[in-house]
Specification:
globular, seven-stranded mixed beta sheet, four-stranded antiparallel beta sheet, alpha/beta, about 475 residues, 13 strands
Length: about 475
């Protein structure tokens, strides 16, 4: 972008923003089944947007300068703690930052030279990211391939004297399964190890599903042995992006998540989060969303998502060649194909205006498609099932994507570090995946098929190169 010689009007800028967004996935309506969460209530989103804008320029860096930040955060965190078994919390920018702080607090409290983190293979990659940044070893534990849950016995076999934290999910994102929190937390406590519940997806959903009649097992800070928990408000709290809370059972552990520095001649530094300066807009948006919906609003949304998820699970299971993975206890659904290639199915659904999220195979779990059911999904359940059925039939006719002979072996043998981004882009274009500017949206089935055939480490390296090429 060339900086304009003179300033542009707001109307001009908004018109260009609209043009730039022409090919974005829609954030409302329920046809995008991941990344966005929609209540179907425009007045709630409007209230959040106005509160976000009101707090946009308030800096959360120094709460003594802006006491509104303290009051709003205490209210938001207090609401989460009240719903999820108490504790002492921090408002963060999202699940990854909440998880980062939980891992930091556990690492610093343990004070070990070679700390490790034990988690199921279904745990969110944010834990791997936190461990990478914080110098903690990750030890993965397989899950049962029928239930997609980890067992306390399997976790116990992996922990040792250097384990600083054990992780369970409520639910795990890939298949929507809730790990046996009570059993794992009790085992961890007996071993003197902290236990974190990743409830980023389910924390602000499962309690409302329980009130709506779902059988939801205990999972929060009221469970003995659970020492911390993460809960995103920009998921089923329906707040604007940038809103999460991490809770600690003990205030001393929360203090371990903080960072302070006085080793310089400038202003004193004390950060509750990874970020320093940050807009209070997301805090304002979260506060307004909670206030706008209230308990009754969330309960009504819980009932709607529960009904939609039930109908979707039954409807998908009735489509020839498709099967739901496990018995999801939340409103996250994953389904695989028997004689249907799911990556081709996803492309066909997208051509019909629906985004279903592809998930690669890993640790014995087959490639599948993921659906996050939100408050707006119920109104479009039949339309979604119709698109899935049509796309499955089209995918059956087309068959799996045509991966050029020898391509996987070629990629496996490549020295990716020796290729510049331009050469990598040309290589991708030669197999039908043109990432270069102006090429448009490629069909992703062949990309996902190639990635699915590669080991995780090489998948990661390829993904890094894709991102580098896209941003240029």
């Amino acid at each position: 972008m060339n900086l304009p010689e003179t300033g542009r009007t707001a109307e001009d800028l908004l018109a260009e923003l609209a043009r730039l967004k022409e090919h974005d996935l829609p954030v409302r309506g329920g046809q995008v089944t991941s990344y966005v969460y929609d209540t179907g209530r425009p007045e709630v989103h409007e209230a959040a947007a106005r509160a976000y804008f009101e707090m946009l320029e308030v800096n959360s860096l120094d709460p003594t300068a802006f006491p509104s930040v303290v009051e709003m955060e205490k209210q938001v965190v207090g609401a989460v703690a009240d719903l999820l078994g108490g504790g002492h919390g921090i408002f963060t920018s999202g699940g990854t930052e909440s998880i980062m702080l939980a891992v930091k607090a556990a690492r610093d409290e343990a004070g070990l030279d070679r700390p490790n983190l034990v988690l199921p293979v279904t745990a969110h990659p944010a834990f791997h990211k936190a461990a990478h940044y914080l110098g903690v070893e990750v030890r993965q534990v397989p899950v049962d391939l029928a239930t997609y849950q980890v067992s306390a016995r399997a976790v116990a076999e992996v922990i040792d004297a250097d384990t600083v934290l054990v992780v369970v999910s409520a639910p795990s994102y890939p298949q929507g399964a809730i790990d046996p929190v009570e059993e794992v937390a009790a085992m961890a406590a007996a071993a003197g190890v902290r236990c974190h519940v990743d409830a980023c997806v389910g924390g602000w959903l499962l309690p409302w599903l329980r009130e709506a009649g779902a059988d939801v097992p205990p999972f929060d800070l009221s469970v003995p042995g659970v020492t911390s928990l993460s809960c995103d408000l920009h998921k089923f709290g329906y707040a604007p992006k940038g809103a999460s809370v991490v809770l600690f059972a003990d205030p001393g552990t929360r203090r371990r998540a903080y960072f302070a520095s006085a080793a310089w001649p400038g202003y004193t530094i004390i950060n509750a989060t990874v970020q320093s300066s940050r807009s209070a807009g997301s805090l304002g948006g979260a506060w307004a969303t909670l206030q706008s919906l209230g308990r009754q609003g969330y309960l009504e949304l819980g009932r709607a998502t529960l009904e939609a998820a039930t109908r979707l699970r039954k409807g998908i299971a009735a489509i020839d060649g498709l099967r739901v993975l496990g018995e999801p206890e939340s409103t996250l659904i994953a389904f695989a194909g028997d004689d249907v290639d799911v990556f081709t199915l996803a492309d066909e659904a997208r051509a019909r205006g629906w985004f279903l999220q592809p998930q690669l195979s890993y640790a014995g779990i087959p490639a599948n498609l993921h659906i996050t059911v939100t408050g707006v999904t119920l109104a479009g359940v039949e339309a979604m099932l119709s698109v899935i059925a049509e796309s499955a039939e089209a995918a059956r006719r087309l068959g799996p994507p045509a991966v050029p002979d020898g391509l996987v072996e070629l990629i496996t043998g490549l020295d990716l570090d020796a290729l510049d981004d331009a050469t990598f882009a040309e290589l991708a274009a030669s197999v039908g995946v043109d990432l270069r500017p102006g090429a448009g949206q490629p069909r992703m089935a062949v990309v996902n098929a190639v990635l699915d055939a590669l080991p995780a480490e090489l998948r990661e390296a390829i993904l890094v190169r894709f991102l580098s090429v896209i941003y240029g």
